[in-house]
Amino acid sequence: MAAERGARRLLSTSSFWLYCLLLLGRRTPGAAAARSGSAPQSPGASIRTFTPFYFLVEPVDTLSVRGSSVILNCSAYSEPSPKIEWKKDGTFLNLASDDRRQLLPDGSLFISNVVHSKHNKPDEGYYQCVATVESLGTIVSRTAKLTVAGLPRFTSQPEPSSVYAGNSAILNCEVNADLVPFVRWEQNRHPLLLDDRVIKLPSGMLVISNATEGDGGLYRCIVESGGPPKYSDEVELKVLPDTEVTSDLVFLKQPSPLVRVIGQDVVLPCVASGLPTPTIKWMKNEEALDTESSERLVLLAGSSLEISDVTEDDAGTYFCIADNGNETIEAQAELTVQAQPEFLKQPTNIYAHESMDIVFECEVTGKPTPTVKWVKNGDMVIPSDYFKIVKEHNLQVLGLVKSDEGFYQCIAENDVGNAQAGAQLIILEHDVAIPTLPPTSLTSATTDHLAPATTGPLPSAPRDVVASLVSTRFIKLTWRTPASDPHGDNLTYSVFYTKEGIARERVENTSRPGEMQVTIQNLMPATVYVFRVMAQNKHGSGESSAPLRVETQPEVQLPGPAPNIRAYATSPTSITVTWETPVSGNGEIQNYKLYYMEKGTDKEQDVDVSSHSFTINGLKKYTEYSFRVVAYNKHGPGVSTQDVAVRTLSDVPSAAPQNLSLEVRNSKSIMIHWQPPAPATQNGQITGYKIRYRKASRKSDVTETLVSGTQLSQLIEGLDRGTEYNFRVAALTINGTGPATDWLSAETFESDLDETRVPEVPSSLHVRPLVTSIVVSWTPPENQNIVVRGYAIGYGIGSPHAQTIKVDYKQRYYTIENLDPSSHYVITLKAFNNVGEGIPLYESAVTRPHTDTSEVDLFVINAPYTPVPDPTPMMPPVGVQASILSHDTIRITWADNSLPKHQKITDSRYYTVRWKTNIPANTKYKNANATTLSYLVTGLKPNTLYEFSVMVTKGRRSSTWSMTAHGTTFELVPTSPPKDVTVVSKEGKPKTIIVNWQPPSEANGKITGYIIYYSTDVNAEIHDWVIEPVVGNRLTHQIQELTLDTPYYFKIQARNSKGMGPMSEAVQFRTPKASGSGGKGSRLPDLGSDYKPPMSGSNSPHGSPTSPLDSNMLLVIIVSVGVITIVVVVIIAVFCTRRTTSHQKKKRAACKSVNGSHKYKGNSKDVKPPDLWIHHERLELKPIDKSPDPNPIMTDTPIPRNSQDITPVDNSMDSNIHQRRNSYRGHESEDSMSTLAGRRGMRPKMMMPFDSQPPQQSVRNTPSTDTMPASSSQTCCTDHQDPEGATSSSYLASSQEEDSGQSLPTAHVRPSHPLKSFAVPAVPPPGPPTYDPALPSTPLLSQQALNHHIHSVKTASIGTLGRSRPPMPVVVPSAPEVQETTRMLEDSESSYEPDELTKEMAHLEGLMKDLNAITTA
């Protein structure tokens, strides 16, 4: 076959060159160059060229009148000539039987005698020209609108008017917009000539500027639209002589908002009238327009502005300003400029092969933004699985078939117009190489192998095509090289695939030569696909492999999202949510769950709903909530809807404004300051504040004033001198007025103070030094007639200019803190106001040394005045409480014992609240003042402990700080991703990687876990990434069984109790190449030549018996071994208890510690058997202290990573066990060790995840053929005890890959088995233990000869049905020496008593009941 194809190509090549030689004498070089439309041909086959096929003329929008004739132009070019047809409103016109419409020779449409009436408009509509060439394709033109002007109707007519000479006048004549071009004016029944002074606006209005006496007369407007003319009313315009009397300046016509298309002309009318005659100027966006030097800007009659050939830069706001010297008026209008669709990138012609994926590119611009649709051969392209719109406007065609050939057009349309651009698709035969074209039209999956082929042998079909991994939405294919090319280093491969029963085939190419695997993604679940693979070399494509039929995994049939979810507020505290039944219910919908959450919080609530609507009550007023709905069927919850947000209705505020304060400005005014009510109490948009004030002596005479909602202060003027006033403020919403603040009092000054100069020097300054602080006190200036706004305190060592502090004018003392001991400070005090700072007053003081604890009342140098004692301090606030409101807000409340019992503030005291956090330690305090007994602290950090304290100040007196209150803000979702994400390969395990990271810098709470996302495609949707959950705050995790030499991308997301934080940036890591290791799975250790396998059968890779014993026989063996073990242990324990000497007591205590003798409390039937370790050095049962912490090293990965992970369990497994297994399947690697083993630095013991469920099945134990009676090899005590942690057993888990030179038994653990049981292995005769120095462990059983059989201990573990618990150890001891056992038995024979025997027998009965409960459950 290959040889025949090569011969045919050689013959075709020879014929081609012979033909070229024959034509060489006939054709000139210029003639050959003229064939610019053809593409280069490859040897062996001819390539069809792209055919020029396009429109020369396309129809345009046309305006016509009734009874006239219209031509819609259209002409197309093609060889051969195309057939022209017309569509009207999307339907082809039958022109053969139409006597009014006919097709002209060039393809234009001629319509004679246009018909148009109120109820019959057959000619008006949208027309489109369609050109078709047989065997080539079809193209369509742009759409043109034919508008027919209606019957003339006047919407406004001219009215009689008068105008002063030199002024402007207007006469209205408004008709429907279609008839404006047909409007003309007459004066005194004669046509009116228009000029620079008399113009007609685009609306039909007549404007006469600089009126003269000749402008007077009778005016009317006429509409001539093909039929009889229609006249308006005839009115008189009077021109009055100019007078000296002034008249108001008014606009006769103002500009109005306009929308124009680029390239059109626009007129902005502006006509003003008044005496004196006004002048008009124009501005755009507050910049004056220069109409004199501009060619495009012209002032028409009446100063209207005309802009020619509008561009996008002309858009903006235009201002018309009229000024007559006495007054100025202004009008404005917005000009919006639109643009028709234009192509930035047009589709290009494409060559392709069948099964390829292609993309037609189309990039458009316009204003408004155009919409794009695609047409193939004149028919609309409907998006489907194989025709997709990508990157907003591009058309992607997947899996080409021959019928996809033709012309594709991109049609862009907006409110202004439409445009079209097209390209041709030619599908070549597979043996024809694609000519060189710009690669932008081909997708990444089909850009390979486009070079022209050369002659030579082609590869045979790839071998052993298999689906190595099958998921719900992707399939991984692998294969071997073709037999014709065993190495295959230079081969590339194409995978063709299609849905079964669908003729359209798609192709996916390998990414590099020699690669023999491809992952096909974006498949449908539970769908059968057919795959075939072809190899390509430099000569072309080879044979195809046999079709491979693969079905993707099914997805659980869950409901889709509920459509049309809507939410609307019904009251300030209730919202109603409605929805419809999901389209893809996948079975009967059982119920719905409605989730809702307040915006800005992370606490989502839910309610079960059986209908399609629900009203939620008890919501916060004027608060935004988000809602979503999840439908449930028998399989569980479905897909959630998108969130919809709605706000509850507003209401009157439920709290008064905060922090009301008064500032007396002078003898007649007081400034009021306040803050809005707390956000949670505003209940709506604050629209204003109501201020009420009264004289304290006349409480019934109340004055009200209103201010806007954005104003937080108001100056109240016109007050009486030296009078006390009460003030209160209330907030308003559109619903009404909320509660008002308490009355607050202030007294106006007796006389106005002077602020035209700076204050005078303060009358006194006193300082009192302490060790690290200086108390400064002062008295105000003696001249009380100058305003003092505050005081500036400067201080420093040797100079007062190092630090400056400003305090309020009411303050009379201040403590300068954080000073150095034994230092000389200079202090200055200046009063200041709005004019500046006054004359300073100086003092100096020396702080006390650290050792000086004496009381020094006053230390003054050069004091010009008599010292004044400090005012008595006030009592500090009490009962300070911190109420946490959100993640960044805490409300501080307190009580003031110096106030009356009702805690009403009637004086000018105020409170200072300070707060800080101790992280970092050097954080400074923040302060805020309040005039009420509470304060709202905002802007705090989430999940942070703050301390708060309060002090009160009244005049010169202040209290000390109160006792502190503490509050921790609520947690918030992490606002930053985990950082420092690194990925490293595990040494010795190329398929295992270790991911390390650091916690987020903004955790905003306790991190409860992480989620690791990884994928081989960084651009894949996040729901397509594999997920690895990490519980707790661990910062490292292992991921196993990855594909070798493959780039992976990793992202990490942290979570706390509030939810998930953002993802980290993707980190790339390529797994190492294969190091020559064996196949997948674990290798059995080298057990030596004397090893004999147990006759009970071998173990499967997952630790399950492949040849299960009869269940009854297994039960008898287990019961027998258990009973014998218990009886021997109890009898030996009884013997040990009778030892009377001190040595015997010590032995008995050791026996109890080894055997784990239990003293049961209460009924024996209530006692559950202890959780056990299985440890194969000592045959003993030990109670275990359960560790409360889960093993931080063991992490199970429930996601299959290769084809083995999804292979069903062997059918020979016990059916009951097989049915009760859950989905958990861990990888028992050498790294998955217990906490105990990890702490001791030893190899792990057997892993047994235990559960809290009761026993559910009897123990399965398969002893070896060398089983000996347990009683002959067990004893109570041993003289020699290994230190804890000295020995441990080594096991080879089912997923480990390690070599062992020691003949050790293998314990296989089933980590997901639902049983809770234990098994006791048999022990061979005692003998000296042998040690292998190659292994850091003790042999499981002692051996005397090499031919002893190894005993296989099989254990069963319970599943992880509930929460995971740490594995529990069961220790199996070795046999002690016989001599000591005999001696212990002899010593205990004579000391046996009947009453103690009765107790021990009762003890034994309890143990037997427990064993019976275990074996029969």
Task: Please provide a written account of the structure.
By secondary structure, the chain is mainly beta. Helix content is 8%, strand content 35%. It is built from nine helices and 89 strands. Strands 12, 15, 16, 19, 20 and 21 form a six-stranded mixed beta sheet that branches. Strands 23, 26, 27, 30, 31 and 34 form a six-stranded mixed beta sheet that branches. A hairpin with a 5-residue loop joins β67 and β68. α4 (1111-1137) runs antiparallel to α5, α4 (1111-1137) crosses α8 and α4 packs antiparallel against α9. The chain is flat. Residues 1-45, 444-453, 854-869, 1076-1109 and 1140-1392 have low confidence and may be disordered.
Write a concise synopsis of the structure shown.
By secondary structure, the protein is mainly beta. The chain is built from 9 helices and 89 strands. Mean pLDDT is 74; it is low at 1-45, 444-453, 854-869, 1076-1109 and 1140-1392.
